[in-house]
Amino acid sequence: MDIRKITDEVSVAPQLLPGDMAAAAAQGFRSVICNRPDGEAADQPTFDEVEAAAQAAGLQTRYMPIVSGKVRDEDAEDFGRALVELPGPVLAYCRTGTRSATLWSLSQAGTRDTAAILAATRDAGYDMAGVVRRIVNGGKTPTDTGDAKFDVVIVGGGAAGIAVAASIRERKRELSIAILDPADIHYYQPGWTMVGAGIFDPATTARTMGSLIPQGVHWIKSAVAAFEPKDNAVVLDGCRVVKYDRLVVCPGLKLDWHAVDGLVETLGKNGVTSNYRYDLAPYTWELVRNLHEGRALFTQPPMPIKCAGAPQKAMYLSADHWVRSNRLKDIDVQFMNAGGVLFGVKDYVPALMRYVRKYDATLNFWNNLIAVDGPSKTATFRVSEPEKESHEVTVGFDMMHVCPPQTAPDFIRVSPLADAAGWVDVDQSTLRHTEFDNIWSLGDVMNAPNAKTAAAARMQAPVVAENIVADIYGGAPRAMYNGYGSCPLTVERGKIVLAEFGYGGALLPSFPKWLLDGTRPTRAAWILKEQILPPVYWKAMLRGKEWLARPEKVTAR
């Protein structure tokens, strides 16, 4: 038997034989549903034969034959009722298991998240892309015929999405462009580190989405449920369908708070905070101001994460405050890093290590946060050093700044656009999808091996815009992305190590070394971060003004 588990209560399988029934019962199944009509193939047993063997094994049965490729809405409803009426776990079968998996998917529509349904069936080996619109539509066959259509559709209204929309508009204003995003507020997330240090007011990092959408660009305030790239369609929540000639995918990534046991329940209290959330960054500053003694933990999960330096930025700025208030001698600073290095580009590590020593911070590599007990103020880490057996350690804390694990959004991971790890699969130079020629991606969600930062998106937006316009005119890609990313590492109030680098860790400084040496802490980099970059973000990047971001042209060979 090739039994494929979908949930704890439902599994599906290709054709089952009477001789399989005893084994199914032995594996704990209590009911069997047959979704294959009798006589579909000459070598197939009849349902009566299977039923007799099932009853002899103590299994209940249900015959619900479905013609291949013709699962009706009422069939899915009947299947859902059967799952309620029959004792579980239930094993359903047809010729390959696809009809049974389809029936389950449609029966669960409206009660389970679409991405969860697609993920469960995908993990069992079944692709439900063909019925995704019905799943989104509550298990019903869509009847809509008046779907919207645009020259360019952009999924995501964050830094990457608005920037690329503005850059495309600057190049070809007559195009019809739509941004799909359900959010009301747009955030300048690089500013939250400064909020957590009491330097920025939180309100300065937020603006209404409507005020930022470029003039002439349509804003469809809806979440994306699924992609149908072969039909040039995006399916929205509610089963509305938006068609496109060209698609740009940049919804950012998912902060997976639930991946750490107990974390969600204690965030914002019990001394547990994170600068990765707008509402929690002020709590970071409250904790820093009020901590006079004890242990402060700063965690970093496995890569990839957005702004890989942010977890240690929180540590440096907090410790700097404790130095200035003469408290550091009574505070034990611990950096708990799931990786094995302080920073991925070695040229910047010496300057950072000087501050690690200055703040007497202990570096704990290969320590991945897996659980938090807020009331008892303890955190559990899995320690996984190379070539050593992993083990768990529990550490007490008085304050803990958490960087959550991060993944691609669920609707991306289960889509035809994703690679095996769940990220949008692109050519790392042109940012064009490796399979679908009319799809591009930028920002945190795509799989190019670059740092996931707003500075990277600032460089990527013109590249994607340039290449989309080239494609419209029938030409080959004419701009390339060199992997540029920037991480202003705030090592103390008033000084920053400005890390700028590209693919392979190559240094890509924006300024001459005599003006700003990024490998050492400088006041100039602090001024850039505090006073210059926010206006550049709001007034240039999101408006298609490509200051210091002109795309590098493809050279003929």
From TrEMBL:
Residues 150-267 form the FAD/NAD(P)-binding domain. Keywords: FAD, Flavoprotein, Oxidoreductase, Quinone, Transit peptide. One of its GO terms (molecular function) is FAD binding. Pfam families: BLH_phosphatase, Pyr_redox_2. InterPro entries: BLH_phosphatase-like, FAD/NAD-bd_sf, FAD/NAD-binding_dom, Prot-tyrosine_phosphatase-like, Sulphide_quinone_reductase. CDD domains: PTP-bact (cd14503). NCBIfam families: TIGR01244 family sulfur transferase. This is Sulfide:quinone oxidoreductase. It comes from Lutimaribacter pacificus. The lineage of its organism: Bacteria, Pseudomonadati, Pseudomonadota, Alphaproteobacteria, Rhodobacterales.
